[in-house]
Design brief:
The strands form 4 sheets. The protein has a two-stranded antiparallel ribbon. Strands 3-4 form a two-stranded antiparallel ribbon. 52% of the residues lie in helices and 12% in strands. The C terminus is likely disordered. Helix 1 packs across helix 2, helix 3 runs antiparallel to helix 4 and helix 9 crosses helix 12. It is built from 17 helices and 8 strands.
């Protein structure tokens, strides 16, 4: 496939190096975007469509460069002749090659992390983890953006699988990689970076184990447990309760909010705070009685212990409550298939992560609308929110009670059902 530019009798051609079977796709002009693009034949297989998609990436990149060059010529009132446009395009391609040679994927990923740190502060360990896995996989070899093709991504996937990572964790690594590359595209105003289209079509299946949160009854026992003789455990318990009452705080947000309460208090009965991980703002959140009771209990709001220490304390409280309820936790691979399962008692699962899951679970049992619950927790999509909402035994029992109340009647007579009593039927 060639792209030709012509003006006043002179012309030049660009070999795109795209090879397409004419029977597999059609070249059409998109009037709205004023570009040519390939439309795949729907009867052809996925591989042919992928070739077509990759071809469109190259076509769009080339046409975009030409359009920008012509626009610049128009502004400067310079000639549109083919020789000038050709030399400008060559200069851009040379600049592009220079950028890709200097800036490796590793270098660009570090720029991305620095940008995220400046925007959201804490809560970006997931991106750092992906970057570290990528560095370990490449072992010091320079990787350019043009190298991120299907073969490379498959090799990265195989590497992650060898690290015995859960399928959900592998999915998160590729999701972070996709966010990073989309960020590069969004900030590449001059179209100087060439990123293969493969990453957009590369899919790792997301499958997560069912969430585990405390039920209403379990949470009541947790609140009522007498810990007056063990002040550190009592503070940890109260901090956990406050986190749940506030819609399910993340550990980092609990630390920030506790510091703010120690300094300013909560005289207005509402709190405004920003999530460290996402930057989402919670404005004038009214405190429920549970949160107010925790605040009023202390002259100064308690300090939050380290995440490790708090988790150890929570597990100790779980043992004091004899939470021996077994929980089956399946593990999945990157393709969504079950690879194993383990049985763990609830007392060993209690951690700061249960603040979000417990809050969403109790909201569900109290019939609080998901949109309201999501506003409390800060979730932006229903799919991500539902990963925190546990449908447990208590949920099923409540469901059965409602069914029983509706159908709590005597057995219907044969007259009501329209059935014929065979014993009285004439022969």
């Amino acid at each position: 496939m060639l792209v030709e530019y012509a003006h006043m009798g002179s012309r030049f051609r660009v070999n795109t190096k795209i090879k397409i079977d004419p029977a597999s796709s059609e070249l059409v002009f998109d009037v709205k975007n004023k570009i040519f693009k390939l439309i795949p034949n729907p009867t052809y297989d996925q591989e042919s469509r992928l070739v077509c998609d990759n071809g469109n990436t190259i076509l769009f990149d080339l046409q975009s460069k030409l359009q920008k060059i012509i626009a610049e010529q128009e502004i400067k009132e310079e000639s549109f002749d083919a020789g000038t446009v050709q030399s400008r395009l060559a200069a851009r391609n040379k600049q592009n090659d220079a950028i890709e040679k200097i800036k490796t994927v590793q270098h660009l990923f570090q720029e991305f992390i620095t940008h995220k740190e400046s925007k959201i502060g804490r809560g970006i360990n997931s991106y750092r983890s992906t970057n570290q896995h990528f560095l370990d996989f490449t072992s010091g070899k320079k990787v350019l953006l043009g190298d991120l093709k299907k073969e490379f991504l498959n090799a990265f996937l195989a590497y992650l699988e060898k690290q015995n990572l859960a399928g959900s964790t592998i999915f998160k690594q590729f999701k972070n990689l996709r966010i990073f590359l989309n960020w590069l595209k969004a900030n590449d105003e001059d179209g100087l970076l060439h990123i293969p289209n493969s990453y957009q079509n590369f899919r790792v299946k997301a499958r997560f184990a069912d969430p585990i949160g405390l039920t209403v009854e379990q949470f009541k026992f947790f609140i009522a447990l007498n810990l007056s003789s063990r002040s550190e455990l009592e503070r940890t318990r109260d901090l956990f309760v406050f986190g749940v009452a506030m819609g399910g705080l993340r550990y980092g947000d609990l630390v920030s909010l506790a510091a703010m309460l120690r300094k300013y208090g909560a005289g207005l009965g509402t709190l405004t705070f920003f999530e460290a991980k996402t930057g989402n703002q919670h404005t004038d959140v009214p405190l429920n009685d549970l949160a107010k009771n925790i605040i009023s209990k202390y002259e100064k709001f308690p300090l939050v212990p380290s995440n490790f220490r708090m988790n150890q304390n929570l597990k100790t409280i779980g043992r004091l409550l004899n939470w021996n309820v077994p929980k089956i936790i399946p593990t999945y691979n990157a393709y969504g298939q079950i690879t194993g399962k383990k049985i763990t008692e609830l007392k060993d699962l209690v951690s700061t992560k249960l603040m979000r899951k417990t809050s969403a679970t109790i909201d569900g049992l109290l019939n609080i609308e998901p949109m309201v619950s999501m506003k409390r927790s800060g979730h932006k999509s229903l799919s991500s929110y539902m990963r925190y909402r546990d449908v447990n035994k208590e949920s099923f029992e409540l469901s059965n009670q409602k069914w029983n109340s509706v159908f709590e009647t005597k057995q219907p007579s044969t007259k009501q059902t329209g059935l014929v009593d065979q014993s009285s039927k004439d022969t």
